[in-house]
Amino acid sequence: MKFDPTLYLITDDGYLEGRNWLEAVENAIKGGVTVVQYRSKGRGKTAREMYEELKALRELTRRYGVPLIVNDRVDLALAVDADGVHLGQDDLPVEVARKVLGEDKIIGLSTHSLEEVEKANDLPVDYVAFGSVFRTPTKEKPVVVGVELLREAKKRSKKPLVAIGGIMPYNAPEVIKAGADGVAVISAILGFSDTYKAAESMKRAIERTRRELKLLGLLP
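Above: the chain sequence. Below: its structure as tokens.
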């Protein structure tokens, strides 16, 4: 399955509780989401509960041809035949995850500094996430890197780079102009009741900026 990180949605229990979460994700995909990452933290779900949710999400993402990435849990990714995993700096080592998952699965890695970005160049990862670019309500004490450091990270990275953290339609153009290959979001889509319109708005902001950059000869 083709991996296009343009609009990368991360699920979050805090934004999905009390609503039809699968419908919210489906509408976001219809609105333009290109990757879905299943992330469930801090809500005390059992592995069985997460497995059942992932089964439903796997069926949904397959129907729309959108890659499904699982946060942290290599075992659950294997259990539902997800397209890959996303790992943090303190999670299972990337080299180990690659051995377990094989060469065909997607592996992403969170990075928060230029040093971590450069180290990722020599790791068997398919993309890196870099941030938090802006302040975000989904992290208690986010390391805010800013747009200038994002620009430098893109210059140093040999992997596709996905910007994350506090990105909304109004500041997405800054992120794309800094060179990000895509944006990862939670509240920018799941924070709204109409996830279709929220995703559409973000996708439109990204595409409009890319068109401008192409006209200026700054994008191939």
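The chain has one domain: 7-215.
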